[in-house]
Amino acid sequence: MSNLTLALDAMGGDFGPHVTVPAALQALSHYPHLNIVLVGDRIAVGEQLRRHNATESPRLQLLHAEQVVPMTERPVQALRTRRQSSMRLALDLVRDGQADACVSAGNTGALMAMAKVVLRTLPGIDRPALVATLPTTNNRPVYLLDLGANVVCDSETLFQFAVMGSVLAERVGRRKRPKLALLNVGSEEIKGNDQVQQAAQLLQATPQLNYTGFIEGDGIFTGEVDVIVCDGFVGNVTLKTTEGIARLLLDQLRQSVKGSVLAQCLAWLLKGRLRKLNQQMNPDQYNGASLLGLRGIVVKSHGNADQTAFLRAIEEAMVEVERQVPGRIKDRLESVLLDKS
Amino acid sequence: MSNLTLALDAMGGDFGPHVTVPAALQALSHYPHLNIVLVGDRIAVGEQLRRHNATESPRLQLLHAEQVVPMTERPVQALRTRRQSSMRLALDLVRDGQADACVSAGNTGALMAMAKVVLRTLPGIDRPALVATLPTTNNRPVYLLDLGANVVCDSETLFQFAVMGSVLAERVGRRKRPKLALLNVGSEEIKGNDQVQQAAQLLQATPQLNYTGFIEGDGIFTGEVDVIVCDGFVGNVTLKTTEGIARLLLDQLRQSVKGSVLAQCLAWLLKGRLRKLNQQMNPDQYNGASLLGLRGIVVKSHGNADQTAFLRAIEEAMVEVERQVPGRIKDRLESVLLDKS
After folding, report:
1. How confident is the model over B21-38, as a mean pLDDT?
2. Residue B287: enclosing H or E segment and its boundaries?
3. Are A88 and A118 in contact (CB under 8 A)?
4. ipTM for the complex?
5. Which EC number applies (chains A, B) (predicted)?
6. What span, in angstroms and rounded, lies between the C-alpha atoms of A248 and B222?
7. Is there a contact between B185 and A233 if contact means CB atoms under 8 Å apart?
8. Chain B partners of A239 at a C-beta cutoff of 8 Å?
């Protein structure tokens, strides 16, 4: 396997270097072909390196950044005033070819805005999309996009999302001719708003994509399709609803086994399983979400990711580099558009 | 308590009179002030009455209907061709003052279209909305609307939904000054699309409503607010997502206790609780959904409702009659609009 280099925003997320540095060290020891550039405050990152008995090396470099993007800063503000931030410098490394991908657990809005400006979108892509996987009953996670990068989308944008999601499912998810659906309020052809209706027409006219029709909210989790496309408003509400309902159900199950000793044993038996389910229901927290449609790879880890979760985001970035996701999206889009013209 | 009369679409739903007739009989025996008109095929309904040793009486009348609205028929088609259907005649009874409310488990789209034409909307209301409750961690169900009656909504429509939802929460849910939120992709003021942004401004300028701001998908289930407003596209996807994820979680929990005998015993102990959770996660199936904003009361029971679920829908309609929901919506709207002018 050829070497690859990741730029990590070491300061991003709720725990900054406390999580990113040990996750980076773990990744380096797991993957001999991996190099990492830790971008962040020299002192804070250095302290964590020392704590883990690690030093800079050809495989582990430290790039000092004067600034940090606060978690609550508005994207436009961050874009204008945080040119020396760890997030921005990590993206610059990808743009300049010094890193193959960037991973950050920082401010999502700022990351999307900066990534769009620094890396720019692929030809034919108007807007990048945020994508993550959700669990299904048949254990084949489904790719859902957009998760909130674009609250308003026209049919052309939804079509581009469909191309990007299909490529990701094929290259990273190893699905052959991934089944694709549009999220809608009914599965009948007449249902939905104009954007969804028109996107359906575009997709039906594109044999390179395996478009199967509309799917409703309860169809997300059945595993009947591989990729589901919707605008960022609907996608974000869906993702957060999933997290909320999972928390409610697990909470109520815990409540319901209080009291009975036998039931407490069950709760104990189920504990690991409940934790795993809870993680699955928080996909962006657990596996990281990817920004698709850029001339570079950017993986967003959840702000309160722990070491394991941040390591997962690193691994996601590695796979996307190895499978050349942006290049494949560009190729697929070109072939689709060529066929249409 | 003064007498009240419900018109039941006896033919609606997957099981028609097999469910609606016994549910009606049960309701009549529970509530001495209740009268019911069963609207449906004379023979099919009569057969179910005989099976339950019941006959027509001053409290239980049968109104023959020649037609039934098929579950999959398009609303416009039903509107045009089903003027003698059980659904349509039940709505006519409400319009003519012969019944105080209508309950149907039939085709949702057809019911909404017919109800709008037959009963018409209240003054100041552009479109009726579909509303149901979702469970929360603090056991105070939250009212969510619109659930799919209107896939595209402008800010004015969202504002009207807020008024209607607040009145329902106050009158039926017994909440004092119900807390109201708009469903959005972030809780910060700058987030969301134009409709949501403008609706927020309208709500902030309306002291008669207890508007608390934006809420995200995971906030639906925390019980922090009483009423959540969104367009019918988002609401429908949210409701269906809730049902889907609940099914997935319960399925996976069942899978995870397979094998171990102890765990199986405990699963058996939890069975009732799991069923209850499952019902809560399917609110329109369990309690019925209400059509708000009409000059009359219409409750929609889920198509595959069993006797208990249909009885719940009957009870919901009774409470809405007793608490005079449409009149209160009209009053509230008038006072809000008067204050604004």
Report:
1. 98
2. none
3. yes
4. 0.88
5. 2.3.1.274
6. 8
7. yes
8. 217
Look at residue A93 and tell me whether its pLDDT is greater than 90: yes
For B185, which of A217, A232, A248 is closest by C-beta distance?
A232
> How distant, in Å, are the alpha carbons of A65, A70, A304, A340, B126 from that of A17?
13, 15, 12, 48, 54
Residue type, B320: E
Give the span between the Cα atoms of B245 and A314, in whole angstroms. Answer: 28
* Cα-to-chain-centroid distance, residue B162: 16
Which DSSP letter does residue B131 get?
E
Distance from CA of B282 to the nearest CA of A (A): 11
> How far lies A78's CA from each of A72, A106, A182, A292, B198, in Å?
10, 12, 33, 21, 26
* Closest listed residue to residue B109, CA positions, set B151, B153, B152: B151
Residue with tokens 């939802």: B165
* Calpha distance B35→B57 (Å, rounded): 10
Q: How many CB atoms lie within 10 A of CB A33?
A: 12
Best residue of A233, A258, A277 to probe chain B, by most B CBs closer than 10 Å: A233
In the predicted structure, residue B326 carries a pLDDT above the cut 90: yes
What structural domains and CATH numbers belong to chain A? 1-125+293-323 (3.40.718.10), 126-283 (3.40.718.10)
Q: Name the residue among B232, B238, B251 with its Cβ closest to that of A241.
A: B238
Contact B237 A240 (CB under 8 A): no
Each residue of A225-244: b (16+ CB within 10 Å) or e?
A: bbbbbbbbbbbbbbbbbbbb
As a whole number, mean pLDDT of residues B82-94 equals 98
Shortest CA distance from A136: residue in chain B: B248
Residue A169 in contact with residue A227, Cβ under 8 Å? yes
Enumerate the residues of chain B whose CB falls inside 8 A of the CB of residue A237: 183, 185, 216-217, 230, 234, 237-238
User: How far A340 CA sits from the closest chain B CA (Å)?
Assistant: 30
Using one digit for the tens of pLDDT, what is the confidence trace for A258-308? 666 666 666 666 666 666 666 666 655 556 899 999 999 999 998 888 999
> CB distance A269–B252 less than 8 Å?
no
N-term to C-term CA, chain A: 38
Give the minimum alpha-carbon distance from B207 to chain A in angstroms, rounded to a whole number. Answer: 27
Distance of residue A153 Cα from the nearest chain B Cα, in angstroms? 10
The answer to whether the peptide bond before residue B146 is cis (omega within 30 degrees of 0) is: yes
What is the tens place of the pLDDT at every residue in A150-164? 888 999 999 999 999
* Inter-chain CB proximity B281 and A236 less than 8 Å: no
Residue with tokens 């999580």: A19
B244 chain-A contacts, CB cut-off 8 A = 217-222
Per-residue pLDDT, B260: 66
Average pLDDT over residues A98-124: 95
Helix B17-30 × helix B307-322 angle, to 10°: 50
Greater confidence (B138 vs B258) lies with B138
The pLDDT assigned to A283 comes to 57
Measure A20 CA to nearest chain B CA, in Å.
26
Q: How many CB pairs under 8 A join A and B?
A: 174
Of the candidates A222, A241, A262, the beta carbon closest to that of B220 is on A241
CA distances from B232 to A169, A178, A192, B301 (A): 30, 29, 10, 18
Give the residue from B147, B157, B153, B95 showing the smallest Cα distance to B120.
Answer: B95
Q: Which residue has the tokens 């998760």?
A: A147
Residue A255 pLDDT greater than 80, yes or no: no
Hunting for tokens 């008995």 — which residue is that? A53
